[in-house]
Amino acid sequence: MNRKLKQNIYFGLFRISGWMVVAAIAVLIGYLVFYGIGAISWEFLTQAPRVGMSQGGIFPQILGTIYLMVLVLIISIPIGILSAVYLVEYQKNRFMKGVWRVVVHNLAGVPSVVYGLLGLGLFVLLLDMGASLIAAGLTLSILVLPIIIASTREALIAIPPSLREASMALGATKWQTVRHHILPYAMPGILTGVILSLSRAAGETAPIILVGAAFYMPNLPDSLFSAFQALPYHIYALATQTRIALTGPNLFGSALVLLMLVVGMNLVAIMLRNKYRKKYRW
Amino acid sequence: MIKVTDITVNQLNVHFDKAHALKDVSMKIGKNKITAIIGPSGCGKSTFIRCINRMNDLIPSARVTGDVHVDGTNIYDPRVDVTDIRKKIGMVFQKPNPFPKTIFENIAYAPRIHGTRRKEDLNRIVERSLRRAALWEEVKDRLNKSAYDLSGGQQQRLCIARTLAIEPEIILFDEPCSALDPIATAKIEDLLIDLKKDYTVVIVTHNMQQAARVADCTAFFYLGELIEYGSTRDLFEKPEKDLTEQYITGRMG
After folding, report:
1. A62 and A231 in contact (C-beta within 8 Å)?
2. What is the rounded distance in angstroms from the CA atom of residue B235 to the CA atom of residue B220?
């Protein structure tokens, strides 16, 4: 076959694949916006659901999702980043490094419902936290740890060894080198992992059903040990447990809000990343 | 204020896993001199120079035996703090490796981590170091610009200035000109000759002409062994060993 024709066929395939991705996202967002935008109002964002969830808003669900993200941020981000630093910078044994890497990769592949079971067995029952915010926060924290560790690790090993050597050769301690050079230079990559994790935590449904998300609560959670409501489960509940004819607008509105939350966070991440990239480029 | 030191190396051996990279090297490096280390690729010259400030500690597979005395102290003594050693013995690397920060921050980093906090002190150190590295006039108006905006030769002089800022007694250069053009190389060489008034300088180089131009003494390494060591003129004009003669006349390596 003619070389040019071959090239055109392959480029055509690449182009079609590329546009299919864009189209899928466009359809998804378009669909959600089309059906959901009508539901969104100030009342929708600030009121609790009423009348079998066909009226009112989704404030408790938004709040619950934000609580979860904050818990994950507090619990899992520091542990994830610090353990990746240990893994890359301090663990010298090559065999142990390999073991760690395999463990982290495998953890990333465990289905989320299995994490839910772990949370149910460990936090809810064994540690007697009950179906609660804290149990869900801890469960989601374990779930996102591999994401944070893997992305932080990638960011750390991408830093040229010559910069480490430069700092060490000036008489800096390892910690000073990590603190003043490695971590700041790796920050764009680390932030990417953090945001991915938070988006994941915001969207996970299966685990939180097992460890504390409630279908309906009359009150907002008043402590870490309260049950809570969250957006993903709310969407699931509306879609499966109610009459769509009545709750449809709220269902799509909730999905749209969840999407906006995640997209908004990604935008913040991109902005932070660009800021750091501008500051430290190498 | 500036104190100059000599270096005595005894029976130095380095292994990387099973590879014996440096074999029983003993030599004395004089103060206020430029000592060049030459030899073909893989002869152990970089390994050797990295033993003098214990940079090989950073390589997990490296095992170093023997001792290196600097100013009467064995730097491989377990009681010695390696960060003190590296503060006393600066190093400039093959490829310019400025930090991705401003020119000012590149220089101010080391004094800061060693305890200098006052802005005026830092300003003074930065200016003094840059002047000493013959870079001040070129960068004084853009200290807050990224070091990455400088040319390769300027970056390497910035790295030298960064090392001078820790007030070392010895400066090690690991092929400092191998990534530079001839004009930038000439500037660095002039600087080296100027620096030896105040420092003990050890330079690894691939370039024999460079060794002949700048070094007072030259050591020839081959396959991990120190083959010949003497004044640069003697080594190049009447080498004692056949291997040395073969190398400097270009018949080997």
Report:
1. yes
2. 9
Among A48, A261, A263, A228, which Cα is nearest to A140's? A228
pLDDT one-digit tens code per residue, A11-48: 999 999 999 999 999 999 898 888 888 778 787 777 77
Q: Is B141 exposed, middle or buried (0-12, 13-18, 19+ CB in 10 A)?
A: exposed
Banded pLDDT at B1 (limits 50, 70, 90): very low
Partners of residue B86 in chain A, C-beta under 8 Å? 168-171
CB B185 within 8 A of CB B157: no
Interface test with B, best of A95, A170, A178 (most B CBs within 10 A): A170
- Determine if the pTM surpasses 0.90: no
Q: What is the 8-class DSSP label of residue B241?
A: S
Answer whether B109 sits within 8 Å of A163, measured CB to CB.
no
pLDDT for the residue B36: 93
Dihedral sign for Cα atoms in the order B140, B145, B151, B156? positive
Kindly state the average pLDDT of the residues A99-105. 87
- Secondary structure (DSSP) of B171-191: EEEESTTTTS-HHHHHHHHHH
Coil, strand or helix: which one is B37?
Answer: strand
| Residue A267, both tokens | 């935008």
Tell me the residue type at A44: F
Verify whether the Cβ–Cβ distance A168 to B159 is below 8 Å. no
Give the type of residue at A281.
R
Cβ-proximal residues to B5 (8 Å cutoff; 6+ apart), any chain: B31, B70, B71, B88, B169, B170, B200
Contact A170 B163 (CB under 8 A): yes
The pairing of beta strand B34-38 with beta strand B217-222 = parallel
Query: Pseudo-torsion of CA B57, B58, B62, B65, nearest 10°?
Result: -10
For B20, phi then psi, to 5°, come to: -95, 100
Do B223 and B9 touch, CB atoms closer than 8 A?
Answer: no
Name the nearest CA neighbour of A167 among A148, A152, A182, A156: A182
- The set of residues, in sequence order, having a beta carbon less than 8 Å from that of B10 and lying 6+ positions away, is B26, B66, B67, B68, B69
pLDDT at residue A15 in the model: 95
| pLDDT, tens digit, 9 for 90 and up, residues A105-144 | 888 888 888 888 888 888 878 887 777 888 888 999 999 9
Helix axes A59-85, A183-203, angle to 10 degrees: 140
Reported as a single tens digit per residue, the pLDDT across A177-202 is 999 999 999 988 888 888 888 888 88
- Which of the 8 DSSP states describes residue B53? T
Chain A residues in contact with B101 (beta carbon < 8 A)? 280
